[in-house]
Amino acid sequence: MPIQRTKPEDTVSDDERAWWKESVVYQVYPRSFNDSDGDGVGDLRGLADRLDYIASLGVDVIWLNPVYDSPQEDNGYDISDYRAIYEEFGTMADWERLLEEVHDRDMRLIMDLVVNHTSRDHEWFVESRQGNPEYEDYYIWREGDGEDPPNNWESFFGGSAWEYDEEREAYYLHLYDTSQPDLDWANEDVRQDVFDTIEWWLEKGIDGFRMDVINLLSKADGLPDGDPDSEWVGSEHFIDGPEMTAYLEAMDEQVLSNYDIMTVGEMPQLTVDEASTYVSADGPLDMAFHFQHTKLDYDGDERWAVGDWDLTELKEIVGRWQTGLEGEGWNALYWENHDQPRVVSRYGDPVNYRRESAKLLGTFMLTLRGTPYIYQGQELGMTNAPWESMDDLRDVDAINHAEELLESEDHEGYDDVRDVVAYRSRDNARTPMQWDDSEHAGFTDADPWIQVNPNHDEVNVEAAEADEDSVLNYYRDLVDLRERKDTLVYGEYDDLLPDHESVYAYTRTMTEDGETEQVLVVLNFFGDRPTVDLPVQYDEATLLLSNYDRSDDAPESVTLAPYEARIYQLD
Ligand code: TEU
Q: What is the pTM of this model?
């Protein structure tokens, strides 16, 4: 059968190609990766000791979560000095060595840029609260409204977004923890100081930034009250605010565009229409993390409640982003990061089909159009941990919300809220990397700062290395396939079964020098055995990869095993 030819103008031009589009990123949360000095906390030398492992995955870029000086109220997202390394993680010399060793292995390093807020301990804030004229307008200070805070905005971590400061006798805005005051980006000096900091790191030779909550910088004039019924009260006044594009364009023009780097913005509540303004070919950033697919298992809008999720909704979201970004906008693809529970525990089956579903979810992420981000441990199929008692929790977000749930509803104790907290806590992503089956999973010799997942006796790097069929080795195959097939990077995406409730099937198609290549991906997202007819045309179908032992049978009608994934080449 002849294949469906796409138009020759689908050819990817040299202008459209970029190293960061062809890269696979691996995210390291240094606090939980590897501890070299026996204090129970991961560190930079520990990470450097494991670079060969990361390189063995075939990935191209490492994204390092914040390692700057910080009181660690929000694990480093509360920065007290942008140009110093947090002592427990090591020294600037350790960091410089790390960068060199990453580059020696032909990988790149991107750093986390957290400039919506600083720590309360940052010198700028210390000066600002004392009313030093140079810094008094570095943060968003307001008088209260009588006994009440200046408006009804809420912190993402719960409660009011305003904190009264006795010293300055005014409220300051904090969209996250009280320890994380928001900078006032309307102040030109703030912008210049941040741009200088960005340049300082780029001059050190890094390869780009992941930008924390970067679409929150611009707050609406007058800071009006928000809709009290919305998911995050006030967000319509501080997400994608009026000056947002102008700030990022200035950052790009003054600093970013002078370097050959990659930038990815983390953007809560981002829609595909809004995204095009940030990440089109001439937008200020290269790509953005949106959150739409991470909310499928909320109960409606409610994050601290668990709902059933629907595959057709996932298809709708993914389809919108795969095809809807205008002006050559590029996607950032992820399931997990340090804020998300483990994906196998959400959209897979961690009990009956851990291995199969981990591979299925990996197949999906690595065969879409965009740059994939693998979070440490995802390549092992790590799962959520049990959070038996409130004392096990470490994350300010989980602790605050657990307390809020306990206060607001008719609950007697932690056991009543445990299911939802254990499911949703960001701590699930932060349990130590599982290197082996020893007491602390090979992460540390001391007591780790957070519990090790008890399943490390089975799920660990050492065991996975020894097992040809492991999730780890399958991820290596996926990365390798992606690196060899441009079609998986640049090819057009077409959903073949948008309405099917358990099977996801799509093609990726690319034409180059008059030749069309088509790759077919077939994914059974559940534990049953569906048979599907696929509208594909081809002369020959070659099975490139599957998480089951399969031969090259014809893909126009297939019966799939639980969580089965297949990738075919169609000629
Ligand atoms: O997160 C921003 C944020 O609001 C979300 O990532 C949130 O944690 C997610 O929606 C949960 O589903 C960033 C950092 O990634 C996070 O670790 C920080 O706590 C936060 O900013 C504040 O800096």
A: 0.97
